[in-house]
Amino acid sequence: MPRPKRQANPLVSKYLNAIRPTQTEANNLGELKPVEPAARRGDGAPLLGNEQVYVMKYGTKYHTVWCKVVAEKWEHSPRGLLVTWLSDVGGRARCKECDRPPVPAKPPLSATGRPGAGTNQVIETQEPTPPDEDLIPLKVVGLSHGILFLAAGPEHRERLKETAIEPSTPLSVDGRRDGMVVRLDATKAEPLLVVQMDPRATFMDVPYQMRLRPPLRRSATKPYAVASVEPVSPK
Ligand SMILES: [Zn+2]
User: How many Å lie between the centroid of ligand 1 and the Cα of residue 81?
Assistant: First the structure.
């Protein structure tokens, strides 16, 4: 299914909210502020990044994992399943189902028959989506002459030493290519990722993250490659 479009004009949303009485309760819990999820599964299902939670359009709860409630929402009304920052849940309460998720957190990956997980096992997809651990947070450390420097935490250094940059690795902003990753230097305590920005791209001083994947090249000597780099929370 196609990626859900970003939220409509806030005025339109407000208007729609006003004419939907069922939403009143959720509105009292604070305005819903959907953000782009950290990643998406192959089928488009949103995956949470750090500090992100699932919320539902008319819901009164928030969810920290892919629990039964979230899974059912995705199945029956995927457009109503949204992601927001934990700090933006307002008066929504933490979902109790999240404490004992009966479905694997990342169905396509870990659906390898966990005992007692029920009979409705999710069918494994052929190409597993990278798990959340494959998202590495980055912070901006500099921008100079169209070159963006992003640093990862020292705790990711060992992993990044095992990570290659393959040709055409994009900096993606809302699905648009805003630049190309040119170099990864993991010899530093804080590994440095060097990105060549496209001349027409607008620089955003926000947290970024890089996504890892297995290398595409058969000749690859490292077990990981950078799939893409993106802002964690594009405006
Ligand atoms: Zn839940």
Answer: 12
CA of 22 to the centre of ligand 1 (A): 20
Q: How many CA atoms lie within 13 A of 150 on its CB side?
A: 32
Gap from CA of 224 to ligand 1 centroid (Å): 32
Q: What is the pLDDT of residues 61-114, one digit of tens each?
A: 999 988 889 989 999 999 999 999 999 999 999 999 888 755 554 444 433 444
Residue 64 Cα to ligand 1 midpoint, Å, equals: 6
Task: Confirm if 166 and 215 have CB atoms less than 8 A apart.
Answer: yes
| Residue 96 Ramachandran class (φ > 0 left, ψ -120 to 50 alpha, else beta) | alpha
What pTM value is reported for the model?
0.45
Q: Please give the distance, rounded to the nearest whole angstrom, from the Cα atom of residue 11 to the centre of ligand 1.
A: 29
For 89-98, give one letter per residue: b (16+ CB within 10 A) or e.
bbebeebebb
